Amino acid sequence: MLTFEQVARSGNARAGLLHTVHGDVPTPVFLPVATQGSVKTVTPQELRELGATILLGNTYHLYLRPGVDVVRQMGGLAHFMAWDGPTFTDSGGFQAFSLGSRVRVSDEGLWFHSHIDGSRHQFTPEIATAYQETLGADIIMPLDQCIAYTENFEEARAAMERTHQWLARCKKSHRTDGNQALFGIVQGGVFMELREESSAYVASLDPPGYAIGGLEVGEPKDIMYSVVERTIAFLPDSKPRHLLGVGSPEDLVEGVARGIDMFDCALPTRVARNGALYTRLGRINVAAATHRGKDGPVEEGCDCYSCKNFTVGYLHHLFRSGELLALRLGTLHNLRFIMRLMQEMRGAIQNDTFSEYAEEFLANYRPANKDARKDQRERWLSRK
Q: Residue 82: which domain range?
């Protein structure tokens, strides 16, 4: 049975322990994304060494390949990928909705065409829940309707109401022996009235945890932060809160400052494979000509394998040469950067110095160009 224990607070930021049957997870926590049962280029042992405590798998991708029954026959998701800790699966709804014209939505559920071979498939709340039960994750998500950033109130309301209907059906169909937790997802777009209404409805079902969805889909950062803050105000304090699909360093700090406990996102590993590496001052493009022949690590003081053993000039050479090692070394660095960030925030909360920590970090960290972030996300969605 999943339980959540708060161990310290500093302002609205919380440090806690998420207790699952497969181990405890210190929070705040970032979940590396093992979309198809693998965090690209990194082994499970390396993930442990980097500081990961829980991984996320994607139901849409695992359903299509190799198939949820295959994963079950191999002992469940964790055993299948040789991971010795807790796992988390999303419903696959976000990936299906990102297919654009290849998906059709109704109150019953959604029909979509596979991005692999064009074959037609259906996800209903009951089916998505059953597939996740088969995968055997510790935490599962209900099917929800995630829409792109819109200023159309009625469009956002309709998606929220459908999400509520689907959550009730997921809850009703969920078969569990107490070892698998079905979270509730709050939707409502950028409209505070809808976020309040959605929070109240989801809370009325008393799930073991809450996820905030429908953000980082094109809305301005300040609006995203306001929505998170407003939503949290209407959620019970005793349950864990997960912010879906958010993972840039500045967003992690801003989220923790507002009371978020859990995050997941493919961003850190995806940008790493494209040569964008994190430092305390912001992302650097290691493939840029300015790093040719440059001595020293990507970031002084970083304890990752890449920084302890290789120069930024060497990584520049690997990326420019198209060497596969570049993808691994970049990914190891970015994941370790994120894991250290989460560990440092937890320590600052326990020492009641989080406000000072966050202020210093955000004063020094330069976010990626806003337009570049938007273009990057649109390219990613088009590939899903």
A: 3-265
